[in-house]
Amino acid sequence: MPSIYTPKSLTRRLVSYNTVNPPGNERKCATFIGDLLSEGGFDVGYHEFAPRRTSLVARKIFNAARPPLCFSGHLDTVPLGLSEWACDPFGGDTDGDRIYGRGSTDMKGGVAAMILAGLQVASMSGGSSGIVLVLTAGEENGCEGAAFLAAQGDILGRAGALVVGEPTSNYPILGHKGAFWLEAVATGVTAHGSMPEQGVNAIYKAARAIVRLDGFDFDTAPHPVLGRPTVNVGTITGGININSVPDRAAFTIDIRTVPPQRGDRICRALQARLGEDVALKMITESPAVASDPEDRWVREVFDVMESYIAERPVPRGVSYFTDASALTAAFGHPPTVILGPGEPGMAHKTDEFCRLSRIEEATAVYVDIARKWCGLF
Known about the structure:
By secondary structure, the protein is α+β, with helices and mostly antiparallel strands. Helix content is 30%, strand content 23%. The protein folds into two domains: 7-176 and 288-374, 3-Layer(aba) Sandwich (Aminopeptidase); 178-286, Alpha-Beta Plaits (2-Layer Sandwich), CATH 3.30.70. It contains nine helices and 15 strands.
């Protein structure tokens, strides 16, 4: 079914849905997309990990003998921030080649391209295999929607390869670092601030532990594409008032991992480094994703992209994580490429925008990749 939408009008429509996370509230956006895909010949299912936190899985299968190609994106966005926007963050205003709005680059422009490409491919006949669109809720808070789908057993089904439409300016990325987040808690004994010798200051304990993290050696070789793991202390809290000895302090640790690192081993090494002053508790673990540059399908994607970017892509990775952390593992670790029209430098920023020409290009790229996979020529 030819779509009544263009890349511009569909992105504008998606931006108009306020899916700021928290609270998310992706249901209306998901059902709009589901209706569009259903009319275009897809089988659509909705799945909620919490009320109004709706993900959808849409399938168009030409031949079930070969696993389908999966395209994935997320429907939620980060909050608007404290700075005033010069445009309506949900208006989809345009200025030349730019379309503005929260989520335009991260990543409703990419979702629009996937929908339009999917509808175009679904209208073709013959071929083998098929395509699946997995559009998730709750990506911005630790891939909640993708993790929920992965835990449900047979909802996702099979996939022979995965394209994640996160912002890459339409450059194919072969993987990303994982995220291993921890909370470290120090405990003490409260006392009056004028008599600190009668207490045990938990903030001092936390501070000493934080200093020990400086220069922490993960004892792992750099990954050839993703580089080295990193560690960052993101938050610290403690105390109840200025004139009391604090009996509790906590800080959070953001570790970006590379294969073959595992969270349990990192946690043991950190605990040994930090000592008994703090107790570590895992918040979340999202594994790294890294595809083989010599994989046949990866080379096919690079072949497609060479005609668009006028040079042969080189293997690259990114430090942020995506829904691929959950989906790639759930699908049995097929080759995965991160490829989307958004501008990486505009993600999460005030007056966020995406280039319309990139969305148009991504639509064409996704069609080309899907046609190759399904044998539609």
